[in-house]
């Protein structure tokens, strides 16, 4: 199946991508891909090592005639988001990603593709093993754990890197040159509850929300996509008052940086209210699907009879937590006043688990303005604390402040216009790139970000443009030819 991927142009990039996608590389479980990358560098005879955090660094000398150019750091992250459709039988821990070609796209069968940031990694690998591409002295920096905390970038110590320019290959629009990004903070609300007996004569239902697109909780948050956790809560809200609905459990969403696509809840309703519940549920489901029909045409909201559970949540906690989830902000909080069209601050209610007397709600708040990030984080903290939850803020990382006077930006802008006869989109993004974190220990390093077009990152609909990858590869090679001389 992946043989058709290996025949795509540029073969040197797609072959390295296929090699990489044969290696399991979940965030925080990168042992295999670290070993793979160390072996790759050493087989090339290049200086290759792993730092104390687990990041892999490979150094390659300048090609003849390029020794007087500034040294360049080529940077991408090794880990990928592991998401799959509920009906896809796949083990990320043991299986390689199964890819196929669909028109001008490379996709995966029912799982995330790993183009984020695997295509960047593959392009760097292709540069490292080439004997024909002119370039200055290179340091390839392959970071770990970008998707679930950016701990690789945070753990990179001062003095490890020698380069003066950093090219981050993690932007997902091929006409975009990134000069800034949002920071973020994880917000986790937890509490316990007492389990109560199921009311006598109550009937059980399994409620499912699925078929949503999902997507990247930064890059796609402004699109108005459905959030399965918010939709599920809307369905359950006021359920006790109207039908004696009691919640036995909820399992919604997945990773903190993926917009939730699915949620499942086990509930019971009063026997006398069963018909009214089914009728009103169908009406509400139709209403929600009609609201979201343009963006979420495949959304399904269903309630099927289920086996009666052993216990349900205590009603006081159920009321408080459903109200908190209704009140908790999800989506865009504020648009940037300085950059038109840029989301400044947002929140993703990523995960809701209610099970066996415990509640856990996980959110990721992003912002390019630290004070606004703190404001929204405190809003969410207050909302969940009012429902009796303990709220922890963790994993905070800084944004990357744009530098419109960057020398490498000038190089990329001029090169792009020459190669493609159009102006690039110079922009900041709402995703969390590692440049802001790396800049804390390397404040003098001139940083820029670009990459091939990728759609649906962090979801099983993830796909990478074939023609776009060819464009990206040409752009990268030409940039390396024109790196400024050392001062």
Write a compact overview of the structure shown:
Residues 208-294 form the Peptidase M20 dimerisation domain. The protein is built from 13 helices and 23 strands. It has helices spanning 3-6, 11-21, 31-43, 115-129, 151-155, 228-236, 239-243, 274-291, 315-327, 370-385, 407-420, 435-441, 466-481; strands at 47-50, 56-60, 72-77, 99-102, 105-108, 138-143, 165-168, 176-181, 183-192, 195-196, 203-210, 246-253, 263-269, 300-306, 312-313, 331-335, 343-355, 358-367, 390-397, 425-429, 446-449, 454-455, 463-465.
Outline type: elongated
Helical run tally: 13
Overall tally of domains: 2
User: Which fold does the CATH topology of the largest domain refer to?
Assistant: Aminopeptidase
CATH architecture classification of the largest domain: 3-Layer(aba) Sandwich
Query: How would you classify the helix and strand content by structural class?
Result: alpha+beta
Unreliable runs: none
Helix content: 25-40%
**Total count of strands:** 23
- Our Rg estimate from Cα atoms comes to 24 Å
Question: What tags apply to this protein structure?
Answer:
alpha+beta; Alpha-Beta Plaits; 2 domains; 13 helices; elongated; EC 3.4.13.18; zinc; metal ion binding
Q: Would you mind describing this structure in some detail?
A:
The protein has 487 residues and is α+β, with helices and mostly antiparallel strands. The chain has two domains: 3-181 and 399-481, Aminopeptidase, CATH 3.40.630; 185-397, Alpha-Beta Plaits, CATH 3.30.70. Helices cover 30% and strands 27% of the residues. It has helices at residues 3-6, 11-21, 31-43, 115-129, 151-155, 228-236, 239-243, 274-291, 315-327, 370-385, 407-420, 435-441, 466-481; strands at 47-50, 56-60, 72-77, 99-102, 105-108, 138-143, 165-168, 176-181, 183-192, 195-196, 203-210, 246-253, 263-269, 300-306, 312-313, 331-335, 343-355, 358-367, 390-397, 425-429, 446-449, 454-455, 463-465. The radius of gyration is 24 Å and the shape is elongated. The protein starts with a helix and ends in a 6-residue tail after the last helix. The mean pLDDT is 95.
